[in-house]
Design goal:
Structural class: alpha/beta
Order of helices and strands: HEEEHEEHEHHHEHEHEEHH
Largest sheet: 6 strands, mixed
Bound molecules: adenosine-5'-triphosphate, magnesium ion
Helix content: 25-40%
Length: about 280
């Protein structure tokens, strides 16, 4: 069930900017250190992470609080700069981009879904969904928009403002907004963290369908083994390192990792750091 991580790392570093196959997004020897060298509070948030994400694959990233999950997503999406190492999306080196290129990348290649929805309160659901297209001055593909709206089940909520929608509905608007421009990869940071179980399943089902039916690449951070079991692959981070890489794990297998072993070890490691 679990794959040796060093083997995965070796595979993907063989050709670091390889974009032949299906690898859409790739991190190569990524290091992120927060704080100054002289600073006692210096934190190593990512510790030489090498990983690739394939087209159409839904990956869940798990791990204890502070293990570097959000940092990894932010560095991969061009929202934060790594201290060293490289990030590639569609073969383009994100870690070497200037601000203008990063803006372009985020408009055209990347979708981001946050835990806190991040919708514009003064705009309707539909206006929120098409906002990225408008900002990027891209035409609206009506047929695709209708399909996305239908799949997230928002047909009769399109004219509502975020304050008139439930949390689950707001997150479904955010999902529709992330996928409507057909990005190369969607990063979702605890997309179901604020949702009840019914809304969670709807959002997770949507993300899984996007990957399976539309070849959408999805990287999702979650603390919930149930949510992670929707993914094709589960990575576990601990202290800024990938400690597990599991293909198609069942809920029970994911649950086991966290009930005996990794999670406890990682928590111990975190404790040592702080001493
Ligand atoms: N802007 C920052 N400045 C300083 N330290 C930071 C900053 N952002 C994150 N860190 C530190 O980096 C480490 C990794 O943080 P990160 O947010 O990636 O963790 P996480 O795995 O997403 O945790 P959680 O599950 O709580 O969201 C933590 O020790 C955190 O305190
Ligand atoms: Mg986080």
């Amino acid at each position: 069930m679990s794959k040796d991580v060093t083997e995965t790392a070796a595979d993907s570093s063989a050709d670091e900017n390889n974009h032949d196959g299906d690898v859409v997004a790739r991190a190569v020897d990524l290091v992120k250190i927060y704080g100054d060298v002289s600073d006692e509070t210096q934190v190593s948030a990512l510790d030489h992470v090498t990983v690739g994400f394939k087209r159409g694959e839904m990956t869940a990233i798990m791990g204890p609080s502070g293990s570097g999950k959000s940092t990894l997503m932010h560095c991969m999406a061009g929202l934060d700069k790594p201290t060293s190492g490289k990030v590639f999306v569609e073969g383009l080196e994100v870690s070497a981009m200037n601000q203008r290129q990063l803006t372009d990348l985020r408009r055209n290649q990347i979708g981001f879904i946050f835990q806190s929805f991040n919708l514009v309160p003064t705009l309707s659901a539909e206006e929120n969904i098409v906002l990225p297209l408008q900002i990027a001055k891209k035409p609206i593909d009506r047929e695709w928009l209708d399909e996305v709206v239908r799949v997230v089940g928002l047909q009769d909520r399109l004219s509502h403002r975020p304050s008139q929608l439930s949390g689950g509905q707001q997150q479904r608007v955010a999902c529709a907004r992330a996928i409507v421009s057909r990005p190369s990869v969607i990063f979702a940071d605890e997309p179901t963290g604020n949702l009840d179980s019914k809304s969670s399943s709807q959002v997770l089902q949507f993300l899984q369908d996007s990957a399976r039916k539309h070849g959408q690449t999805i990287v999702m951070v979650t603390h919930d083994p149930r949510a992670a079991s929707y993914a094709d692959r589960v990575l576990v981070l601990a202290d800024g390192k990938i400690t597990r890489d599991m293909a198609h794990p069942t809920y029970e297998q994911i649950f086991d990792v966290f009930s005996n072993g990794d999670a406890a070890e990682a928590e111990d490691g975190e404790g040592e750091d702080e001493q």
